[in-house]
Amino acid sequence: MTGGAPVIENVTTGVYCFPTPAPEADGTLSWDSTTAVTVQVSAGGETGLGWTYSAGAAAGLVNDKLITVLHARDPLDVAGAWTAMHRACRNLGTKGLAMQGCSGARWENCSGPPGGRYRCTAPGGSRRRTTTNSPSRSTAGEPRDAAA
After folding, report:
1. How far is residue 88's CA from residue 81's CA, in Å, rounded to a whole number?
2. Quick one: pLDDT at residue 95?
3. What is the pTM of this model?
């Protein structure tokens, strides 16, 4: 960052697989593990974390299509970043989980320090102080290579 407003400096992804103690089912699907894909967005010395339940391929989509769209962007321009990500994914599907992970990380990043002055405006104009999709910041579980 060179004076002025912070810009997004770094975007990283992670894939974490959590095995269930026993097979689980909900009547329509059964599974023996849950996969979480994380996105960390860094700007102005702060790092935000967003995550979603998905396949590891969502991290590949972020790495291949969204990192370049977010890099050097104002982290407080949530609507602009969402529009840019939407455009980048136009031919891939735009209701995607990869975009949700990036949005969660940007929201958390732009909340600013406790009591700080940063605020974000969501698409549609609503204002939010801070948001995270994560119930905790735990990184328990075994990370997997995003290409796996």
Report:
1. 10
2. 63
3. 0.63
Contact between 39 and 101 under an 8 Å Cβ cutoff? The reply is yes
Q: What is the pLDDT of residue 119?
A: 43
| Distance of alpha carbon 148 from alpha carbon 127, whole angstroms | 38
CATH number at residue 52: 3.30.390.10
Q: What pLDDT is recorded for position 86?
A: 87
Map tokens 């031919």 to a residue. 91
Residues spanned by the domain of 72:
8-20+33-132
* Token pair 């290409």: residue: 147
The CA distance from 81 to 100, in Å, is 12
Contacts of 42 (CB under 8 A, 6+ apart): 8, 9, 10, 11, 48, 109
Expressed in angstroms, the distance from the first to the final Cα of the chain is: 33
Mean pLDDT by 10-residue block, N- to C-terminus, for the chain (148 residues)?
80 96 94 94 92 90 93 92 89 64 58 44 41 36 42
CA distances from 81 to 5, 33, 84 (A): 16, 32, 5
